UniProtKB/TrEMBL annotation:
Keywords: Membrane, Transmembrane, Transmembrane helix. InterPro entries: Rce1/LyrA-like_dom. Residues 142-230 form the CAAX prenyl protease 2/Lysostaphin resistance protein A-like domain. Signal peptide: none annotated. The lineage of its organism: Bacteria, Bacillati, Bacillota, Clostridia, Eubacteriales. It holds the Pfam family Rce1-like. This is CAAX prenyl protease 2/Lysostaphin resistance protein A-like domain-containing protein. One of its GO terms (biological process) is CAAX-box protein maturation. It comes from the Bacteria. The chain crosses the membrane at residues 21-45, 57-75, 96-118, 138-157, 164-186, 192-211, 223-240.
Length: 241
């Protein structure tokens, strides 16, 4: 029997998904911004009626992901797309595992260098930071909530939206690298964390690279999940100590 070469270059990958026109893309971006605005105002209003900040922050975080998922589902139904059109294409784990782990190590190098630079300038994250509040007072159930939110929901929903829809559509108009920069900037900015913009932007670029290379969202979902899970566990262990 003739041996088969398993190199990526010799494997025919499925075609990329469909693209949105300018009007549809503007509506999607407007929907993303609208979700953030509506949920933010709703959360602030509820704080005046029911002052349980951490509960409302968790509710806001989960509602954001659910709203994004509904936006994706609405787009799927309206445009008669399949999940493959969003980038949900299978790819063998053995093809991606070493690259995903290597790029994850690169994100650590970026984060460490960035943290050292901030420390040298005397900057520390504000105590009002939403992520610090969500991870504060760690218990087993808040840890499970954080892992579910950051390690499962966010990678699946955000990769589908930011890489599969936004980057995929922008690429048709601006080209690969300009679309990558724009989508990564949007991805980072919408986390509303100024001091973490740069490392999250780099992460966004790496996630775009994985999606573009393998024509699949699964590698970027894997890296996104790994990044969030490890960060959550480290933050929890530090707070417990």
């Amino acid at each position: 029997m003739e041996k088969t070469d398993l190199n990526l270059e010799n494997i025919e990958l499925p075609p990329r998904g469909r693209r949105l026109n300018w009007v549809d893309l503007a509506l999607v971006l407007g929907g993303v911004v609208g979700i953030y605005i509506i949920l933010a105002f709703g959360t602030f209003w509820l704080l005046e009626q029911w002052p349980h900040e951490r509960v409302l922050m968790y509710l806001n975080a989960f509602m954001t992901q659910v709203s994004f998922a509904l936006l994706i589902w609405t787009l799927k139904k309206a445009r008669h797309w399949t999940w493959a059109d969003f980038g949900w294409q299978g790819v063998p784990v053995r093809m991606i595992i070493s690259r995903v782990l290597g790029l994850y190590a690169l994100t650590w190098v970026v984060n460490i260098c960035y943290a050292i630079a901030l420390f040298n300038y005397g900057f520390t994250p504000p105590e009002t930071d939403v992520y610090s509040k969500l991870l504060g007072q760690v218990s087993w159930y808040t840890l499970i909530l954080n892992l579910l939110l950051a390690g499962v929901l966010a990678p699946v929903v955000e990769e589908t939206l930011f890489r599969g829809v936004i980057f995929g559509s922008l690429q048709a108009y601006f080209g690969k690298w300009t679309a990558a920069v724009i989508s990564a900037a949007i991805f980072s900015a919408l986390h509303f964390q100024a001091y973490g913009f740069l490392p999250r932007f780099v992460l966004g670029m790496i996630l775009v690279y994985l999606y573009d290379k393998y024509k699949s969202l699964y590698p970027s979902m894997g890296l996104h999940a790994l990044n969030n899970i490890v960060a959550t566990l480290i933050a929890a262990s530090v707070l417990i100590e």
